[in-house]
């Protein structure tokens, strides 16, 4: 089972280059960065974790620039968006960004995607909140066409362009793994429809049990004609509990990620040290 870290990078936190080097030296597999372009002062949608929105949501840096910095100073560490918000991204521009970072990292990019929860933020980008899921699907389908075709075109309800040319194509063939983030069952269905993996969060799996939900996901994949092995599961924000991590390992979870707070090195290194020991106990 692979282990990665997810972090909100800010101007006041440990920076991506030194953290990436530390993670690679310790043998961790990946670094993930969330995305928020901005946070509106209004709030139509409650913060999913409850209470006021924490400051790093306002301060977070652009994920692609952060990840490219991390990739530049490493050779093995994979870098992933955790998650990029398709409802807030132009598909032609994003296709170019993804291909570029995948080329520059020599195939170490993981494209974690999602549709977002913050209605005000999404609507500021001109997206109708109620139809965001169909919009995101069309944008993903359009990007897949751009990455795999010499002269792609796409004609949908929300995305529409005639034949075009765009290079570079991704280093990955046919394109970087598209790992769809979000809760069961809706995001799980999207992962099966157009993804190469699923990212649920550990805290949202606890109610029904990690094993129960993952079994349901695999059954759902088979019913849709997908091989569950082609849809590896990455669980985000797992706790520092060895027994729970061993259970994830036993049921075939492909990857877990632990959360690093938006802090300086002195606050992060003890957390990384503990996870290094957990990784050793898991046989990694």
From TrEMBL:
Pfam families: Bac_luciferase (PF00296). It comes from the Bacteria. Residues 19-238 form the Luciferase-like domain. InterPro entries: F420-G6PD/mer, Lucif-like_OxRdtase_Rv2161c, Luciferase-like_dom, Luciferase-like_sf. GO terms for molecular function: oxidoreductase activity, acting on paired donors, with incorporation or reduction of molecular oxygen. SUPFAM superfamilies: Bacterial luciferase-like (SSF51679). PANTHER family: CONSERVED HYPOTHETICAL ALANINE AND PROLINE-RICH PROTEIN (PTHR43244:SF2), PTHR43244. This is LLM class F420-dependent oxidoreductase.
């Amino acid at each position: 089972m692979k282990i990665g870290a997810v972090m909100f990078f800010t101007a006041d936190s440990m920076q991506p280059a030194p953290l990436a080097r530390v993670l690679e030296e310790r043998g961790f597999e990946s670094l993930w960065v969330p995305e928020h372009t901005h946070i509106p002062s209004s709030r139509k949608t409650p913060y999913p974790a409850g209470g006021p929105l924490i400051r790093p949501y306002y301060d977070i840096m652009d994920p692609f620039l952060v990840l490219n910095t991390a990739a530049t100073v490493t050779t093995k560490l994979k870098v992933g968006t955790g998650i990029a918000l398709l409802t807030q991204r132009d598909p032609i521009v994003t296709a170019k960004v993804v291909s570029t970072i995948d080329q520059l990292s020599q195939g170490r990019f993981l494209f974690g995607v999602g549709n977002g929860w913050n209605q005000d933020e999404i609507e500021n980008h001109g997206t109708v909140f109620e139809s965001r899921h169909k919009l995101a699907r069309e944008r993903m389908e359009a990007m897949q066409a751009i990455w795999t075709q010499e002269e792609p075109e796409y004609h949908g309800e929300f995305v529409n362009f005639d034949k075009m040319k765009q290079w570079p194509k991704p280093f990955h063939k046919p394109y970087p793994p598209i790992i769809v983030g979000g809760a069961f069952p809706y995001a799980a269905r999207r992962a099966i429809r157009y993804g190469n993996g699923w990212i649920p969060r550990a805290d949202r799996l606890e109610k029904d049990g990690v094993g129960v939900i993952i079994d349901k996901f695999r059954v759902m994949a088979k019913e849709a004609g997908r091989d569950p092995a082609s849809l590896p599961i990455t669980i985000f924000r797992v706790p520092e509990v060895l027994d729970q991590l061993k259970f994830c390992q036993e049921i075939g979870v492909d990857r877990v990620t632990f959360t690093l707070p938006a802090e300086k090195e002195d606050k992060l290194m003890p957390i990384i040290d503990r996870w290094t020991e957990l990784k050793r106990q898991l046989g990694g």
